[in-house]
Structures are given as C-alpha cells and as structure tokens.
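User: Second chain of the day. Same drill as before.
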Amino acid sequence: MPVRILRRNLNHPDAVMLCDAVQAEYAVMYGGGDSSPMRADQFEPPLGCFLVGYLHGVAVGSAAWRRLRPQLAGSTLVTGEIKRVYVTPPARRHGVARELMLELEQNAHAAGIERLVLETGPMQPAAIALYRDLGYTDTNGGGWSEYGDHLGVVILEALLPRG
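Assistant: Same format as last time:
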C-alpha cells in the first residue's frame, strides 16, 4: 500500500489524534503515557519535524524528531531524538512505520542531524525489531533520556547519513 507522508505541526488535528492514540496505548502497556514534555516549536524546522502517514487519505501513523541541545545529547555529533513513532492497529504490518522512519531519517539528515537516538520499552517488541532491522544499535541514555533508569528501557542510536 502506498503511504503518503506529510509534515504536520504538532497541533494539527491528525497529529493530535495520533499522539493521543499512542499515549492511550502506553497507558495500557506501561500504566501511563510518555511524560516527556513536547512543545510544537520543537518539531518545526530546523529544530525538528513531525510526520504523519496516510493510507487512502486516512491518518494512520506518525514519526517525529527534535534536535537535542548539545549538553543533553551526550555526543559531539548533532543529535536528534525520535518521538511518537506510532501506527494505528488496522494499518500495522503494511510497512507504514518503516516508511515513516526512512522519511524521518532523510528529513533529519537534511536538517544537519548526524545522530538519531530513541528510547522504547520492553512491551514493544515489534518496534524494537524494526529499529534494529533499520540498523539502530544500543547506547546509553546520556542526559537526554527520560527513562534511562527504568528497568527494561531500550535506548538506541543510528548515525546519519544512512545507506
């Protein structure tokens, strides 16, 4: 299925709907949503980007990145943090998340990002498998990780450009 990917503001109705859906899913999986604060300006160029994927005109997935301040990144590389990678249940297993991630990486690289980092949890094995399949490798949380001290958190990174 062809995925149409568009950049959206964090406050766009489709972005809000997808963020609410992923937070509800986190609440079921982990007992609460992601508490990491997110502001719309963090996801506007050149500081970041929020992408929404559409199938047949319906918003079915999201992926976002935001630039980390150098003192938080724990690296001399210009670093972006990946947030809100999500695909609605009916659209899963159709390559939407992979397409969103590839577009996100291209967008981040074009904005000068050299390294992407993310954190996910043990209740998301499909997400972990996708990230590892895309070449993300384990790293420590550095100063940016909201959940680095939580049991089972998976913290990954990838260097850009890729492939």
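The chain is about 30% helix and 30% strand.

User: Great, on to the next one.
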